[in-house]
Design a protein that fits this description.
- By secondary structure, the protein is mainly alpha-helical.
- Helix content is 72%, strand content 0%.
- The protein is built from 5 helices and no strands.
- It has helices spanning 7-22, 27-34, 38-46, 53-63, 67-85.
- The radius of gyration is 13 Å and the shape is elongated.
- The model has no long low-confidence stretch (mean pLDDT 91).
């Protein structure tokens, strides 16, 4: 399913998927730690739903990634994109 979210959100989504995979966690294991169904993880990873700030922090904690690192990556991508559009 094609996401209808912004390019910036797509970057966020990709960062979250990469962080989960880097931590060698399955969608199911993340969902279990969050006390959510596996479909919860699948839907935000597939771009079918957004994570709010609190959900993002909880997922980052479960995955074991510093949420500030994810935010920095997204900020850097936004900066790079705005520099490219100024050319």
């Amino acid at each position: 399913m094609k996401s209808v979210f912004s390019d910036e959100y797509e970057t966020f989504r990709c960062c979250m998927i990469a962080a989960r995979k880097e931590a060698q966690l399955t969608q199911e294991s993340v969902a279990k730690s969050l006390k959510k169904p596996q479909s919860f993880v699948a839907k935000y990873e597939n771009g079918e739903r957004r994570l709010d700030v609190i959900e993002f922090l909880l997922v980052a904690h479960v995955i074991g990634v510093d949420p500030c690192d994810i935010i920095r990556k997204i900020s850097q991508k936004i900066s790079e994109a705005s520099c490219e559009s100024e050319r």
